[in-house]
Amino acid sequence: MTSNADSPEHSQHEGDVPTDVAGRGVVDPQEAESGEKEAQPGQKSRISLDSGIDKLEKRRTLREAQRVAGELRGQVMRGWTEKLLTRTLSGAIYAIVVLVCLYLGRVPTAIMVTAMAWLCCSEFFRMARMSGRMPNEIIGLSAAIAYPLAALFWGSGAFIPITLIMLIWAAGWYVVTPRANIGDVAISCFAPLYTSLTFSCLVLIRTSDAGPTGALLTLGVMASMWANDAAAYFVGSRFGVHKMAPRISPHKSWEGFFGGLLGSVLIWVLVGILHVEGVGLVLALFSGVLVGVVAVVGDLFESRIKRGVGVKDSGDFMPGHGGMLDRSDSMLFGCVVAYFLLRLGGIL
Questions:
Q1: Whether the Cβ atoms of residue 134 and residue 180 lie closer than 8 Å to each other
Q2: I need a labelling partner for 158 at 20 to 30 A (CA). Which of 7, 146, 251, 326 fits?
Q3: What is the pLDDT of residue 174?
């Protein structure tokens, strides 16, 4: 006779774990299913995290070449911002020096222009030597100093005697220097004409009126070319699509050109509205357009020189801008056009 304790159908006490015939614990299917459901969220979280990390690593690997080249969006934005801040700071210092010299009078203005012309001429000779030429820097730099000072004391009438003296001096040097060739002589004379004779037109404009009106007119001429450069830079870097001269200056665009032209015209219109030295709106509009166009020609001319010798900047005098010639390239030709327009308009 089998006892109730040995029977598989014996009664169980409350709270005991169910067992099978062999006495093993029986797991409730509902409890097993709930346990699997409880483990499933943790497993999914671990899988999702791992797959996310894998995707990030794959993406980082694919963009490694861009990172090394500095072409990632964050790198481009950071580089653009640093360049803009550096360019703005050095440009602000440059503008303050110009404003102070213009306000103090004709002599400080002539001294400032003489220093700028000397630096521009020196940088030009530096690039000429990089191209294999051997100019006479003493002749060129002496003439670069002479032109602005002559404009201060004797006006434009002194330019012809200085030029003749320079030519005779260069001819004598060529005769007694066997190693020199005609190209060296040409560059020795062209450099001061390009960098100093043109710059001297600012001195002529400033000396037309010793008071603040003359300073304001000279500032307007210079500011129109600053506005041209700044507007062309911002518009071109933001919206530039159609290249203007890719072989000479790859970053210049037609969008930047028209943006710079608008900046130049706006400054000249402001000069006309203020009626500075009697400048009218018609003359202001015409001057704004013509000076803006010629300023771009001056910029491209200097870019062509740099491209010919294989350099990015003419120097490193102004951080963010390059050398003084880089900063003044558009002003060299632009101030000449402004001077003649003001002369023809009866202002000077």
A1: yes
A2: 326
A3: 96
Which are the contacts of 11, defined by CB distance < 8 A and separation ≥ 6? Answer: 4
Give pairs for 190-193: CB < 8 Å, separation 24+: 191/121, 191/124, 191/125, 191/128, 191/135, 191/140, 191/144, 192/117, 192/121, 192/140, 192/141, 192/143, 192/144, 192/147, 192/166, 193/143, 193/163
Kindly compute the dihedral angle of the four CA atoms of residues 164, 121, 87, 307, in this order, to the nearest 10 degrees: 110
Residue with tokens 């990632």: 72
pLDDT digit string, tens, across residues 183-198:
999 999 999 999 999 9
Percent of the chain with pLDDT over 70: 81
> What is the token pair recorded at 18?
């169910």
DSSP bridge partners of 322: 318
pLDDT of 134 strictly over 80: yes
With CA atoms as reference, report the closest residue to 242 among 258, 230, 266, 265.
Answer: 258
Characterise 320 by phi-psi region: left (phi > 0), alpha (psi -120 to 50), beta (else).
left
323: Cα within 13 Å, side-chain hemisphere: 22
Give CA–CA dist 222/301, Å, rounded.
19
Per-residue pLDDT for 135 more than 90?
Answer: yes
Provide the residue count of the chain. 348
Cβ neighbours for 103, distance < 8 A, ≥ 6 positions apart:
212, 215
Contacts of residue 345, defined as CB under 8 A and 6 or more positions apart, other chains included, come to 279, 280, 283, 287
CA dist 67 and 286 (Å) reads 48
Query: Where residue 319 falls among pLDDT bands split at 50, 70, 90?
Result: confident
DSSP assignment of 14-62, as one string? TTPPPB-TTSPBPPPHHHHHHHHHHHHHHHHHHHHHHHHHHHHHHHHHH
pTM score of the predicted model? 0.76
Q: Closest by alpha carbon to 305, among 131, 119, 122?
A: 131
Spatial contact of 306 and 312, defined as CB atoms under 8 Å apart = yes
Sign, CA dihedral 78-83-84-89, equals positive
